[in-house]
Design brief:
Length: 391
């Protein structure tokens, strides 16, 4: 079996709550025997710069992959790294581009072996518990969010919810208080600060949040402020979670070596692919760090890839999902919308039963949501503190 083509698909649609664009990047790796696989690259919550990844995949990877055996996954990962790491670096967009191909290769391998990817990796779980992530919407009262959370918990049996903070100290604490009141004492409450806090504010807010018993406080500081992340990891009464902006095994190694974080959130569409995700979970396990794979607003391809990681590794016991109803590249994209929330009434996401990633793509839908160049990801007036570390 040989690779004969690699197709790329920059995509987007407009999210409804709030009204912002979500951008995506998919690949399709094709073989001379008619077997093909799909993969996805992301820079969290949809890809901000899909044309950058497209240039790497089409301009370099396609040329060096055509003619290769798609089942030699480690070999092809090494080959792709050789061509880009020395020039573009070993993290960030290069790992995302490799992920887009690597996930497609696992899809192919699973189809050839007639097994789901998680079983190829030795997994024995048939479902995994999930929690729901809320949205960033600061122009409403916290009760607006919590009424939605309450509906989700009752309808889908979710194990917890994650609130998005970063407006002000008072608003953020009030949101945590109201959320805990609404969901009750037995459900998990996660808090995501979106890297908006300064080091001093982060420590103060961790202390304020502690009384509401959060399961974790996610990304309280910008990712590059490692000295402050070390300090808050040691001082916070709330477990610190991070990882959706860590794009490689080596990036997670740095977190471990510095003692940063109590919960890691790898995303295989960001950090180099499924195999790299397994290595990250294993390294974290060796240092007693829990792993909760990150999904955010991915397409069905990225959701499936992260689900297989969560099912395969014993250090992954919980999975994040995006519950918001309007997600055409989650539901319309599949001939059988297996990730619809109606299938999660017991608060778990089930293992796909079909080989490979376990999904069948309706390729006509790819033409309905083309990426439009120059689309901004986060307008300044919508979330001015995003990633700033200055609140």
């Amino acid at each position: 079996m040989k690779i004969v083509d690699v197709k790329t698909y920059p995509l987007m649609y407009w999210k409804d709550v709030p009204r912002i664009p979500r951008c995506f990047f998919l690949t399709k790796v094709m073989t001379d025997e008619g077997v093909f696989g799909f993969g996805e690259a992301s820079s969290t919550y949809g890809h901000c710069y899909p044309l950058v990844v497209q240039e790497i995949v089409e301009g370099t990877f396609k040329r060096i992959l055509v003619g290769e055996d798609p089942l030699r996954i480690e070999h092809l990962i090494t080959k792709m790294r050789t061509y880009v790491w020395g020039y573009l670096g070993s993290s960030g967009v290069t790992c995302q581009a490799i992920a887009a191909v690597e996930i497609a290769l696992w899809d192919i391998l699973g189809k050839v072996a007639n097994l789901p990817v998680y079983k190829l990796l030795g997994g024995d779980k048939e479902a995994i518990e999930v929690y729901a992530c809320g949205t960033v919407k600061f122009d409403v009262d916290p009760t607006w969010h919590c009424e939605i959370f309450k509906e989700w918990l009752e309808k889908y049996g979710l194990k917890g919810v994650k609130i998005r903070v970063g407006k002000s100290k008072e608003w953020d604490e009030e949101f945590a208080r109201v959320a805990r009141e609404y969901i009750g004492p037995d459900k998990k409450l996660m808090i995501d600060a979106y890297m908006t806090y300064s080091p001093e504010t982060a420590i103060e807010m961790a202390q304020r949040f502690a009384k509401y018993t959060p399961y974790f406080l996610e990304e309280p500081l910008p990712q590059d402020d490692t000295a402050s992340l070390v300090r808050i990891s040691r001082m916070s009464p709330v477990p610190i979670a991070l990882g959706e902006h860590v794009t490689s095994l080596h990036g997670f190694k740095e977190l471990v070596s510095l003692g940063i974080g109590n919960v890691f959130q790898p995303d295989v569409t960001i950090s180099g692919g499924i195999l790299e995700g397994m290595k990250i979970c294993s390294m974290a396990e060796a240092f007693s760090v829990r792993c909760i794979p990150h999904i955010g607003g991915l397409t069905a391809v990225g959701i499936a890839a992260n689900l297989h990681l969560a099912l395969a590794h014993r250090n992954a016991k919980l999975l994040e999902i995006d519950v918001w109803e309007y997600q055409p590249l989650r539901d319309e994209l599949l001939r059988e919308p297996i990730f619809s929330m109606t299938d999660m009434s017991d608060g778990t996401m089930k293992a796909p039963g079909k080989p490979g990633l376990g999904i069948e793509i309706n390729e006509e839908v790819l033409e309905k949501y083309p990426y439009k160049k120059g689309t901004p990801m986060y307008p300044e007036d919508f979330f001015p503190n995003y990633g700033a570390g200055r609140l």
